[in-house]
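Let us work through a complete example step by step.
Step 1: write down the sequence.
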Amino acid sequence: MSEGEKRTVQYLRALVREPRVLCVDEPFGHIQHGTAATFLDIATKGSEVLYSILASTNIEELKRFATMTFALTDGRLERV
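Step 2: predict the structure and record it as tokens.
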């Protein structure tokens, strides 16, 4: 399995447990953007479970899934 496939399996295994919060750092490293968007669609729209996903990422296009975004600038966390 590739690193991206392994990471995708990890996320799907986490979602099966229906957690309330997912905390991930650079969640879509090694994963194709299309796969990342599908995962977020499932987690944010395709489930009856309400998830809170705390993620650090520099992929701008993933902001469309967020209800709140923050930026870390010069050591300060600011809401954008």
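Step 3: interpret the result. The chain has a mean pLDDT of 80.
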